[in-house]
Structures are given as C-alpha cells and as structure tokens.
Amino acid sequence: MEFNEVLKGRYSCRRYQEKPVPAALVEQLVKKAQQAPSWGNTQPWRVYAAGGQTALAIRQDLVRAHQAGEKETPDIGMPAGFSGDMMDRYRDLGRALFKVLGIGRDDHEKRSAHYANNFNAFGAPALVFVAVPAGETAYAAYDAGAFVSLFCLAAAEAGLGACIIAALARYPQAVRRHLPIPQSESLVIGLALGWPLAGAEVNAFRSGRSPLEKALVMKGLE
Ligand SMILES: Cc1cc2nc3c(=O)[nH]c(=O)nc-3n(C[C@H](O)[C@H](O)[C@H](O)COP(=O)(O)O)c2cc1C
Asked: Mutate which of 10, 11, 12 to test ligand 1's pocket (most atoms within 8 Å of Cβ)?
C-alpha cells in the first residue's frame, strides 16, 4: 500500500470482529514499529501483547476495577484536563463521537456505558501494552509514542484496526496480574487491536484536524 493510503486509511477503530489476531501478525507489526526513531537509538519500548482468554481476562478485570470505582493508579500521570485549544478539540471529539454513537447530551447512562467500554478495549480480541523503563525522562514516553504511531500505521496497512486507549493504562496492577510487566517498567499506554467490524458506524467516523496554521510556524523557509 502507498504511504499516503496508509496514512489516510488509519483511524481509531472502536468496534471489532471476534476473529483472533495471529501471533505472527503481531510480531510483524512490532518488527515494523521497531523502525521508530528513539533518543540515541535507546529503543525504550517493551511490548506486551495478549489475545484469547488472556485479553478477555484483562478487559474484564479493567471493567470491574472501573465499575467498582477503584482508585486509578497509572504508572505515568494522566491529564485531568487540557488547556486552551486542546480542551476545545477534546470536547469537539467527544461531541462528534457521541453523535455517531447516538448518545444524547444528557444520556448519562449511555455515556457511562461508553466510557466503561474503553476499559473493555471496545471488545477487541487482542491487546497491546507498551512500557518503558521506570524512572526515565519524558523522552522515553516520547519514543514509545513514536513506536505506537508506526505500530498503528503498520496495523492499518495489514487491514487491522487499532485504537490507542488511555483507559487500558489506568489500572496497571490489573494488567500485571495477567502479563509479566515488572515494576521496574512503567506502563505507558494500551491499544486495542483486531479486525474492524465492517458496517459499524463508529468505524466510519473520522476525526478532524486543525488548520495547518494552528500547528505550524515558519520563518526563513522559501
Ligand atoms: C495517548 C492517547 C490516548 C488515547 N485514549 C483514548 C481513549 O481512552 N479512548 C478512545 O476512544 N480513544 C483514545 N485515543 C484515540 C484518540 O481519540 C484519537 O487518536 C484521536 O481522536 C484522533 O483520531 P484518529 O486516531 O481516528 O485519527 C487516544 C489516543 C492517544 C494518542
């Protein structure tokens, strides 16, 4: 596939088929994502992938922890909100997603069910967790982000859907019950991975981007 096609074709997939993702395919995606640049080629990422009963048990544990109102203890601090334009964009995304999902503004029950579905990784048959050595600077997470970006593009090229999901990293102790992520590593993020459910409206949703001038300042370029 052409790079532009992959770039345009990638989106956050939020409904999946039950069909499993083969281990060999996950290996290929990780191998491709390993091409990501990192500070001094340190490659701080460690990837923990789960499928089958393991993925199911993790999803169930995360949903349980969320619904029981357990205190969230992410290894890396998570934003409670955003400033300025970022908050506007965050709200715009939420509004657009709820509209596609047919969830009304005041439908608190459906809103909570959708939020809980994040912890369920939207039912994805495979989960991918990315960790970095604990105690490193923010640049290790930066490098992990570069890795995750390539991973998502590689997944799109393979016809797979993926969604980066912060909720999957809110209860690292629950993830550690099922995957051998040592305490010497910080869980950065989790991803849902699977074959997109064709025809699901939420998978036809595409988020927008700000105009270029909001992101780019140029000087001295011709
Ligand atoms: C660090 C990070 C955390 C995210 N967490 C969630 C999440 O918890 N739930 C969700 O539905 N999407 C989550 N996303 C996906 C974003 O909402 C999505 O990337 C953004 O809206 C742009 O849309 P696109 O990926 O479809 O282009 C996350 C993305 C990133 C990079």
From this structure: 12
Whose C-alpha lies nearest to ligand 1, atom 15?
164
Place of tokens 């970006």: 149
Nearest CA owner, ligand 1 atom 27: 11
Domain edges within the chain: 3-78+119-206
Show the CA angle centred on residue 102, arms to residues 156 and 88, nearest 5°. Answer: 70
Which ligand 1 atom sits closest to the C-alpha of 14? 11
| Confidence category of residue 1, pLDDT binned at 50, 70, 90 | confident
For residue 165, the CA-to-ligand 1 centroid distance in Å is 6
What CATH architecture is 3-78+119-206? 3-Layer(aba) Sandwich (3.40)
Give the model confidence (pLDDT) of 141-180 as tens digits. Answer: 999 999 999 999 999 999 999 999 999 999 999 999 999 9
Ligand 1 surroundings by CB, under 6 angstroms:
11-12, 14, 93, 118, 163-167, 189, 207
Nearest protein CA to atom 29 of ligand 1, as residue:
164
